[in-house]
């Protein structure tokens, strides 16, 4: 049985309208922190104990920088929000490190081979990850109304960092997406006739502001699960979106069948989207907006993939040479 303290932390997380995934992650690290310090109450611990735990993760457990950062975020939330204690500076803890590596990118030819081995939802989701630069969770969380086939845009709601953005949509996907939306409309009509159906999940703030929204077509998931499930928080019967593991397994299987031996994944399609845009001369700031990066330095890693330097700028002389073709004077 969970302790009253952990239950109070869980209640605080839910009061902040954090996702189920964030709740699970934060509780995991808070419990590990308490266990590491022999089950002492966090209110009796201080910055020294936080630093010791984070250094243990880096030195003894050899976690990645992102994992250590996630643990840090959970502990800062614990003290500032749950215990309402301001922490003194403890930023001198040993930081986890990992060798910097460039993202895996597939060539256009490899992308074409990969899609020959995808079908159904996996094909369409893969096309959105590669064609619109979406993360896997952003893809499975798309709603019926997030696809605008007239303006050729995709609305990403609360992506990483709870930021929303609009990205591009390939016109070649319009017909398939319209068929998918028709399928969702048919499924929605059936769901409405199901006893005890409680509508689709919406974040608390939206559901409170728009109480009828869970029962409207526009808010239904674009890639719904086959069956109903019970919401782990509310106990309501809903049709959730497909799990990201389904896509991850489908992409891995397609990679094997296409004989592509790179260490690729769903996220590789997003990397390939950015890299191929750069290859076609897209501006780095435009790609930053499409990917939803808050810092352009994150986007600039793709320029290193191309080995083009800071801004991946294509010389205007290249365009002139392409226009003049064989009329260019010979080099003497």
Give me the secondary-structure topology.
Elements: H1 4-15, H2 20-36, H3 47-59, H4 65-82, H5 108-115, H6 120-132, H7 136-140, E1 147-148, E2 153-156, E3 165-168, H8 174-192, H9 204-209, E4 229-230, E5 237-238, H10 244-257, H11 266-279, H12 284-291, H13 296-299, H14 301-306, H15 316-324
Antiparallel strand pairs: 1-2, 2-3, 4-5
Helix pairs in contact: 1-2, 2-4, 3-4, 6-10, 6-11
Identify the notable features of this structure and list them briefly.
DNA polymerase, domain 1, single chain, two-stranded antiparallel sheet, three-stranded antiparallel beta sheet, mainly alpha, 5 strands, 15 helices, hpI Integrase, Chain A, 2 domains, 332 residues
Please sum up the structure shown.
The protein is mainly α and 332 residues long. The protein has 15 helices and five strands.
The CATH topology of the largest domain is hpI Integrase, Chain A
CATH homologous superfamily (4th level) name of the largest domain: Intergrase catalytic core
Could you estimate the helical fraction of the residues in percent?
40-55%
**Percent range for β-strand residues:** under 5%
- The run of helices and strands is HHHHHHHEEEHHEEHHHHHH
Q: Mind summarizing the main beta sheet?
A: 3 strands, antiparallel
CATH architecture of the largest domain: Orthogonal Bundle
**How many β-strands, per DSSP?**
5
Which spans of ≥5 residues are poorly predicted at pLDDT below 50? none
């Amino acid at each position: 049985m969970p302790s009253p303290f952990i239950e109070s932390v869980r209640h605080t997380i839910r009061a902040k309208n954090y996702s189920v995934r964030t709740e699970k992650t934060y509780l995991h690290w808070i419990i590990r922190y308490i266990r590491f310090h022999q089950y002492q109450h966090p209110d009796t611990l201080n910055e020294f104990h936080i630093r010791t735990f984070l250094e243990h993760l880096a030195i003894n457990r050899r976690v990645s920088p992102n994992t250590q950062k996630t643990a840090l975020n959970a502990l800062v939330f614990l003290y500032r929000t749950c215990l309402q204690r301001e922490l003194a500076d403890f930023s001198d803890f040993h930081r986890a490190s990992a060798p910097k590596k460039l993202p895996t990118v597939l060539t256009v030819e490899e992308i074409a081979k990969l899609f020959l081995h995808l079908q159904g939802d996996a094909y369409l989701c893969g096309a959105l990850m590669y064609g619109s630069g979406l993360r896997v969770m952003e893809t499975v969380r798309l709603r019926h109304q997030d696809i605008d086939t007239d303006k050729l845009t995709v609305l990403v709601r609360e992506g990483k960092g709870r930021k929303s953005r609009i990205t591009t949509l390939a016109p070649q996907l319009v017909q398939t997406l319209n068929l998918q939306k028709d399928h969702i409309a048919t499924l929605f009509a059936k769901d409405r006739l199901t006893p005890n159906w409680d509508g689709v999940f919406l974040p608390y703030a939206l559901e409170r502001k728009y109480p009828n929204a869970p029962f409207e077509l526009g808010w239904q998931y674009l890639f719904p699960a086959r069956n109903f499930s019970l919401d782990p928080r509310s106990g309501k019967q809903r049709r959730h979106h497909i799990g990201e593991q389904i896509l991850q397994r489908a992409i891995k299987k397609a990679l094997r069948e296409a004989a592509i031996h790179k260490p690729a994944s769903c996220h590789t399609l997003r990397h390939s989207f950015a890299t191929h845009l750069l290859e076609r001369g897209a501006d780095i700031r435009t790609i930053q907006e499409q990917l939803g990066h808050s810092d352009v330095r994150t986007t600039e890693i793709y320029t290193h993939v191309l080995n083009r330097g800071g801004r991946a700028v294509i010389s205007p002389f290249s365009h002139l040479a392409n226009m003049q073709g064989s009329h260019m004077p010979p080099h003497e």
